[in-house]
Amino acid sequence: MEIGTRRMLGEILLERGVVSRAQLRLGLVHHHEARVPLGRALVRERICTESDVLQALSDQLGIDAVDLERAPLDRKLSRLIPLRIARQYRTVPLRLELRDKEVLHVALPAPASIEALDAVRAVSGKPRVEPHLASDAALARALAELYGIRESSQEPEPESEPDPDAPVLLYGWAPVTAVLITRILTRHGYSAKVATALEVLHTSPSDLVLAPVQAMEGLLMGELQIGGALIVHSTSEDEGFERAHQLGAKGFLVNPMDEELLLRAIRRLRLPPSDGRRNSRGLADGEHKGTQG
What contacts 231, CB < 8 A, 6 or more positions away? Predict the structure, then answer.
């Protein structure tokens, strides 16, 4: 059971002007694919800071946030919360306040749970426990200082250097179609890989993405763009070409199973930028309507 009236974290960050809708969409893609909380996904994507997320979570849950970097830790209070409970709920004692009853203030991660507070109340013997939200990184440092708890890093691995021979990334295709395209490319010395949305959003200029136009429109709603070169497919020639142009695509194909045109588009985009001629509309010469060579 979670404390506080829940509003959507993303909407709070939008209202605060911390993120744009396009940035929020990128965070949501990371959130769903990496299965991490949205706030952590936004921090990993360097869209906002832990402090931004913490303040938004404070608004969302109606619980005050605390900056553990500025809040001095009292080692004597650690006796009130055993190591087992501190590790299980990632809870750090802050201070003991005397009102009409003793109040133990604790820091814990969002979302603060009744279960965590009940456990702290039971082991500490204090009649009232008041929660304060703290960032994951700050809690990790405090738990290490007070209890010697060393948590494994949850930060993503550093990205490797772009590979100029990276496979063609296939996104949004039906499984059978992806297999057929892969077979065509393999026969001609190219490798292919079915990519996730997050992988497409994090492409570099050396990457090449092949996708149906509607799949890319769904992914790139708002202001989102990708770093890699894009070839899109649509069965509608004139309308599809305009949609491809709006996506910033460098190639357009009416039939991705047309082996000759598919290979021409890929070979053209695999050349260094200075070697490939581009028309004024941004698509490689000869790819308009997927008919010319």
Answer: 208, 209, 210, 211, 249, 250, 251, 252, 253, 265, 266, 269
Residues composing the chain: 293
CA end-to-end distance (rounded Å), the chain: 62
Which parts of the chain register pLDDT below 70? 1-6, 152-165, 222, 271-293
DSSP 105: E
pTM for this prediction:
0.64
Q: Which residues pair with 168 in a beta bridge?
A: 192
* Predicted confidence (pLDDT) per residue in 259-288, tens digit: 998 988 888 887 533 444 444 344 544 444
Domain that holds residue 245: 168-290
Token pair in block for residue 102: 């003793």
Tens digit of pLDDT for each residue in 232-258? 998 887 788 888 888 889 888 989 999
Q: What is the DSSP letter of 76?
A: G
My answer on whether 286 and 172 are in the same domain is yes
Last residue of a domain, one of 117, 147, 177: 147
User: What type of residue sits at position 78?
Assistant: S
Where do the DSSP E strands lie in 14-118?
92-98, 102-108
Express each pLDDT in 28-37 by its tens digit: 889 888 888 8
Among 205, 212, 200, smallest CA distance to 229 is for 205
| Amino acid letter, 69 | E
* CA dist., res. 94 & res. 124, Å (int): 13
Cα 178 to Cα 145: distance, rounded to the nearest angstrom = 51
| Helix ranges (DSSP H) in 157-196 | 175-187
**What letter does residue 2 receive in the DSSP assignment?**
B
